[in-house]
Amino acid sequence: QKEVEQNSGPLSVPEGAIASLNCTYSDRVSQSFFWYRQYSGKSPELIMSIYSNGDKEDGRFTAQLNKASQYVSLLIRDSQPSDSATYLCAVTISNFGNEKLTFGTGTRLTIIP
Amino acid sequence: EPEVTQTPSHQVTQMGQEVILRCVPISNHLYFYWYRQILGQKVEFLVSFYNNEISEKSEIFDDQFSVERPDGSNFTLKIRSTKLEDSAMYFCASSDAGGKNIQYFGAGTRLSVL
User: Residue A28 — pLDDT band, cuts 50, 70, 90?
Assistant: First the structure.
């Protein structure tokens, strides 16, 4: 059974601080990694994608991937109350289209004003 | 901005009834998916679809489920005889042929089976 593991939280972070979200995956051949944000009762919204080892930055978000450790993380800088949501880590086996996403259970993040 | 649209937003049905959930993927996308999320649980893959064929299906996607692309825009999920445990949010997603497999999700249909 291929698994994606996340700490369910809740993770509470003061406004303006850095939020750090972590994810591990069991299938060593996984190639594509995604972070989705899901507000309560809403659908997953893509935040970041990452495909190779290292860091990828987009605005206040940085995704980090370490394939040797089977670990992917998301950093949110200058956290805002609007960042309060559940963050879902998802992986696929290949970089090609038509590949299913395998999701973790998500980490609930609360930004404290 | 192009988006995946799903209808209805909420469907209430009696156990044993058939339901059809509808999706309009992003227009230039070629790959289509259905996922479901039972309340409080993780998002689970149901089925992927490409070139008018199922590419992959999960063990959840049994004989009670079917998918169809009846025309050039719609993508439907049918549940033939609903069970109480089918109550969930059902999300449609689509991705393009450009690699990277970035999937965009619709707003979802909340299915309530009574």
Answer: confident
